[in-house]
Amino acid sequence: LVHRMRPFGTTIFAEMSALAARTGAVNLGQGFPDTDGPAEMLAAAAEALHSGHNQYPPGPGIPALRQAVAEHQRRFWGLDYDPNGEVLVTAGATEAIAAAILALCEPGDEVICFEPYYDSYAASIALAGAVRRPVTLHPTAAGRYAFDPAALRAAFGPRTRLVLLNSPHNPTGKVFTRDELTLIAELCQEHDVYAVTDEVYEHLVFTDAATAHVPLATLPGMWERTLRISSAGKTFSCTGWKIGWASGPAALVSAVTRVKQFLTFVNGAPLQPAVAVALALPDDYYNGFRAGLQARRDQLSAGLTAAGFDVLNPEGTYFVTADITRLGGRDGVEFCRSLPERCGVVAVPTQVFYDDVTAGQRLVRFAFCKRPEVLDDAVARLSTMR
Ligand code: PMP
Ligand code: GLN
């Protein structure tokens, strides 16, 4: 194995899902829903599968999906992308992120990201021979997560190539405010760097959040330098389909396409028309999806609080983070390894998403994208924890 990949073992999600399978624990670790997405989408996929959509689709994705992606961004965010040249279909957001970093970073270039960061970021940056420059999100007294503006400013330097921004943010559930985004935008322009935004949770911002979701590309001067990434997995509860997309100015999208050609070439032929159908679903679908998850967030947060955790209320995503100190926990990794035995529940230690291990040492993440009866079961188990 090459040196640059040696620090990366089995992903924490695979490790924790295997632990759940082995112990029979309720798996609130890896983030995947336990129900299927919209019936219209599933029917469209079955139809495509039986009507000859089983060979290589066009390189950038089928026209119907590229059009649906463009239309969706106009409808929800007022963003304009030409489906021909400014939209690329990818094998999930994961491939779009990897291809973007490989396309834009020379070895030694620096990528600024907020920690805790999604695990594939560090690996993709390493694959490119680039260097990550994390800026830490700290829990605040108000129960949110925030970064020190001076730390962000200090992270920029002559080798900075891009900022990789995830909002709504996994694992914290933070939704970056317009003020925070404005600072990021100003620094990107001052230092002439690109932004790559991971917005896979764009439709999961709860009604009591302090801020609505604001795509960075909507800020003045940012469309031109932002590659915006999202995917169907979260919004349509089909994480196994791996249909994602990247949108941005033609020069950026064409650079990413160059790399994607040689990673997977194309992907998901019969699933692409189905995701096009899903993207065009009426607002009722999106509102119902969000409301359902908000109710489950409240259900799990209340259960965690009753069990003795200090819950940091997420404003978005389908994850809740909690501090284990009041339960006598000192280290999230140890805590999560012993949790199945203590009470039959699996969670993920957020520590593994930080370079600054101490910053996340006492935080663990629970996924609430599960049926209410599963969350009830998990809460009942947690309440027996000793
Ligand atoms: N980014 C974030 C922040 C995620 O949480 C996930 C996945 N769960 C991904 C990217 C990957 O998305 P996909 O499954 O579409 O590759
Ligand atoms: N994004 C999912 C999570 O954060 C997991 C995806 C994966 O297993 N790679 O739980």
Automatic annotation (TrEMBL):
Domain Aminotransferase class I/classII large: from-to ranges = 26-382
Question: So what EC number does this one have?
Answer: 2.6.1.-
Q: What class of enzyme is it?
A: transferase
Provide an example Pfam family for this protein. Answer: Aminotran_1_2
Which UniProt keywords are present, listed alphabetically?
Aminotransferase, Pyridoxal phosphate, Transferase
Superkingdom of this entry's organism? Bacteria
Which coenzymes or cofactors are required? pyridoxal 5'-phosphate
Give this protein's Gene Ontology molecular function annotations: transaminase activity
Q: Does the keyword Transmembrane helix apply?
A: no
- The parts of the chain that form a coiled coil are none
PANTHER family assigned to the protein according to its UniProt record, in alphabetical order: FI04487P (PTHR43807:SF20)
Protein name as it appears in the record: Pyridoxal phosphate-dependent aminotransferase
Species name for this entry? Micromonospora sonneratiae
